[in-house]
Amino acid sequence: MAGLIRDVFGITTGFQGALINTFARLNLEHVVDDVNDETLDPWSELQHKAGIGDTTPLSPFMEKELLKDADLSLDGRRFEEATGFRPGRIC
C-alpha cells in the first residue's frame, strides 16, 4: 500500500515500530507541532492552486488532544488475516 500511495499520489509513507511509537507518545506535543508544521504550508499551496479559499472547513491541522488517548500504532496481523494482504505483495 505504501508503494501505491507513493506512486499514485507522490506521498512517501512508512511504518514505525514500538520504540518510535513510545517516543512519539512521550513527546506528543512536539510531534504534533512538527507534523502540523510539515502539512499546513503544502495544504495552503494546494488550496491556492485549486482556487479554494481559506474558509473551507477542511484542514490537516491536528490537535494533540485528539491523539493523547488514541493508539499511535497498530498490530497489522488481524488485517493481514482478514484481507490476505501481505506487505510487499499486491493482492
Explain what the structure shows.
The chain starts with a helix and ends in an 8-residue tail after the last helix. The protein folds into two domains: 1-16 and 75-91, no CATH class; 24-72, no CATH class. The protein contains five helices and no strands. The longest helix is centred in the middle third of the chain and has 23 residues, at 28-50. The chain is mainly α and 91 residues long. The model has no long low-confidence stretch (mean pLDDT 80).
Count every helix, treating DSSP H or I runs of 4 or more residues as helices: 5
User: How far is the N terminus from the C terminus?
Assistant: 10 Å
Order of helices and strands: HHHHH
| Low-pLDDT segments, ≥5 res | none
Overall pLDDT score: 80
CA radius of gyration: 16 Å
- Tell me the fraction of residues in β-strands, as a range: under 5%
Give a count of the beta strands, DSSP E runs of length 2 or more.
0
**Which structural class do you get from the secondary structure elements?**
mainly alpha
Question: How many strands, what sense, and barrel or not for the largest sheet?
Answer: none
* Shape designation: globular
The total number of structural domains is: 2
What percent of residues adopt helix (DSSP H or I)?
55-70%
